[in-house]
Design brief:
Helices cover 33% and strands 25% of the residues. By secondary structure, the protein is α/β, with parallel strands linked by helices. A hairpin with a 2-residue loop joins strand 6 and strand 7. Helix 1 packs across helix 3 and helix 6 runs parallel beside helix 7.
Amino acid sequence: MDELVATNEIWDFVDKHIGDDVAALGLAGGKKFGLDDDEMRFALVQIEARQKLGRKLGRMTARRGVIFPQRLSWEQCSSEATAAYKFREIAKLVDGSFDCGVDLTGGLGVDAMAMADVCKTVDYVEMNDELCKVAEVNFHLMGYDNIKIHNMTAEAFVDKCVQDGRKFDLIYLDPARRGANGEKVYRLEECSPDVRAMCGSLQKIGDLVMVKMSPLISVSDCRISDKGGLQNVLCIGTDGECKEVVTVEYLNPVKIEHDLLKIKCVEIERSGKYAEFEFMDSDERKLLWDVLGFDGLRNMKWIYEPSPVMMKTCGWRTIARQYGVKMIGMNAHLYASSYEIKNFPGRRFKMTNVLEFNRKDIAKMFGEIGGKANITVRNFKMSVEDIRKKFRVRDGGDKYLFFCTDDDGRKIVVLC
């Protein structure tokens, strides 16, 4: 069937069975419900998408008629919350909005729609013919008539714009993070399109480039141009994970503001509220390390583990200064205080004991707490699995153990 002209009967079926088990529906077969095989396959994909993406894409999944292609296109797409947040943030650079923007890696169209909220017009570029046809339907249903669709590769579209002399106020890319054999990749040069290889061409069609990168990439490795000016790095987290690392970079050297790299992280809650933390990279580098070590740690009462999105920023000294905590060690990425800091962005624990690591004392401690604990290692010589095997410790319970190393090389174990 042509999914672009799905009948009301199919959408009625989707609405009626939106909470049903997809596998069970598939086993029952389409004939039972008056649908042929193609119609049933399409309907099951729509039901599954709405079940799995309800929180991530609430507006789209709630809209009858919005089409979701096969599962692969869901994998890398932004959530509506993260897409809206990052484009609102970049719009602040120009006091509210842009005239024209281009999304060179269109995909499911979530980012293109968020971009269209801050741009008067948006060009959506996607090489996959099916995704382009689906985007046309979805953009219309979602009320975005200011998006123009182009079915071609990012490279071909950029080359055409260079020939035509077209310019954009904002260029956006979210390179595919799958290798030739379907394996996950995260380095920029492994992704498609290769943004760094395109920099010369991109510079001819605009100055401001926004790139969504893998949450695995290091902030120190996310610059796309040697000649450009990386101005902003935005780390976005939801559900206790770092979901996106987004960069904003000027490709025109004239517009570079040296040493003004701002790094910002945001944790978006399910309620829509969010907590932000930001700092200038140059300020972070000027701060002194305020490290406790083993001796100082024994006078503390609380341990803090920054959230994953906070750790992604690498603003270790700024975190310590802003929240009034002290680092256990430069590479431990754990903090401590003598009193409770309730607004610390991450997990906090009440300390009950601090030990130097040695087999006899640690074995005794595990015996006292019943041989069951939640274990975290930070800059430590053994992995969590190695510790569990060596001391025969089960996972879980209400005890938390942190194994780390201070700047003097002493191995520390903190019981909470």
